[in-house]
Write a structure and sequence with these properties.
Structural class: alpha+beta
Shape: globular
CATH architecture: Alpha-Beta Complex
CATH superfamily: Peptide deformylase
Number of helices: 4
Radius of gyration: 16 Å
Largest sheet: 5 strands, antiparallel
Distance between the termini: 32 Å
Strand content: 25-35%
Number of strands: 9
Strand order of the largest sheet: 2-3-4-7-8
Number of domains: 1
Length: 194
C-alpha cells in the first residue's frame, strides 16, 4: 500500500522517533509499504516519520546511484545489492573526512543542496527478522543511511545547512509546507492554523 509522504512543516519530522518492538505483528507489512512508497516516489531511502509514524525504522535502496559512470565495478555492485531495513538503529561511530554531496528529500520536494557529512559510519540495528547487526558503511550508502538516520532523530537535511542558505530557501520551504508544490506522489501537508 502506498502511503502519503508528509511534507516539510509537519511536526512528526522534527520529533525524535520512538523505538519499536521488533516482534510487532504489523512490522513486515509496514516495511513493505515503506518500500512500495519509496519506489513510487523514486526515492533511495525513506524513514517512518516521513510516512507519519514516529518509530525508529528506515529503509534504503540506493540502486539508482549504481548507474553513475565514475563508480568502480565494486562500488556499483555494492549499490545494486544495498536494499536494507534498519530497525531501532543506533549510531556507534562517524569518521573520515567530511564530504559535500548534494541531497534532496521526498518530504522537501524540489530542493537539493550540498550537505557535509562524515564519509564512514558504524551503526547497530535490527533487521526485519529480529537479528542484531553492527556494521560499518562508507561512500554513497553511508550518505543515504545518515540522511535517513537523521529523520528518526528529528533532523532534516535543511537543518544541516548554514543559516544564510536556510534563509535563502525559506520562501520555498514555506510553499512546500502550504502544499504549493507539484509532485508525482501522494503527499500529506501540515494542517493550517486558523
Amino acid at each position: 500500500m502506498i502511503l502519503p509522504i508528509v511534507a516539510y512543516g509537519s511536526p512528526v519530522l522534527k520529533k525524535q522517533a520512538e523505538p519499536v518492538d521488533i516482534r510487532a505483528d504489523w512490522l513486515e507489512d509496514f516495511v513493505n509499504d515503506m518500500f512500495e512508497t519509496m519506489y513510487k516516489a523514486s526515492g533511495v531511502g525513506l524513514a517512518a516519520p516521513q510516512v507519519d509514524k514516529s518509530v525508529r525504522i528506515f529503509v534504503i535502496d540506493p540502486k539508482p546511484f549504481a548507474e553513475w559512470k565514475e563508480l568502480s565495478d565494486q562500488e556499483r555492485l555494492q549499490l545494486e545489492n544495498a536494499k536494507m531495513v534498519f530497525i531501532n538503529a543506533r549510531m556507534i561511530n562517524e569518521e573520515g573526512e567530511p564530504e559535500n554531496f548534494e541531497e534532496g528529500c521526498l518530504s522537501i520536494p524540489g530542493i537539493h543542496e550540498k550537505v557535509k557529512r562524515p564519509s564512514k559510519i558504524t551503526l547497530e540495528y535490527y533487521d526485519l527478522n529480529g537479528n542484531l547487526h553492527k556494521r560499518t558503511f562508507d561512500g554513497i550508502i553511508a550518505r543515504v543511511i545518515q540522511h535517513e538516520y537523521d529523520h528518526i532523530e528529528g533532523i532534516l537535511f535543511t537543518d544541516r545547512l548554514s543559516p544564510i542558505k536556510k534563509r535563502m530557501l525559506q520562501r520555498k520551504l514555506d510553499k512546500i509546507s502550504r502544499g504549493e508544490v507539484q509532485v508525482n506522489y501522494k503527499m500529506k501537508f501540515p494542517k493550517r492554523k486558523r
